[in-house]
Amino acid sequence: MLQISALHSHYGLSHVIQGIDIEAAPGEVIGIFGRNGVGKTTLLKTIAGWVKPSQGAIRLGGEALDGLTPDRICHAGVGFVPEDRRIFPGLTVEENLSLGLLQVKGRSSRDEKRVVEGIYDRFHRLGERRHQLGTTLSGGEQQMLAMARVMVGKPRLVLIDEPSEGLAPMIVAEIFAIVRELREQGAIILLVEQNIHEALSVADRFHVVERGQIVFSGEAENAGDRERLLKLIAV
Amino acid sequence: MTAIDYLQFVLAPQVVNGLALGVAVVLVALGLTIIFGMLDVINMSHGEFYAIGAYAALALAAAGVGFWFLLVLVPVLMIPLGMAAERLLIRPVFGSKDRHVTTLLVTFGLGLIVEDVLKIIFGANTQRPPTPIPGASEMFGIILPNYRLFLILVGAAIVLGVAYVVYRTRLGAMVRAAAFDRNMAASLGVPVSLVYAGTFAFGVGLAGLAGVLLAPIYSVFPTMGRDFILLAFTVVIVGGMGSIWGAVVAGLLLTQVQALASLVISPVWTDPIVFGTMVAFLVFRPQGLFGRLGHA
Question: Which of A175, A196, B98, B197 is deepest in the core (most CB within 10 A)?
Answer without folding.
Answer: A175
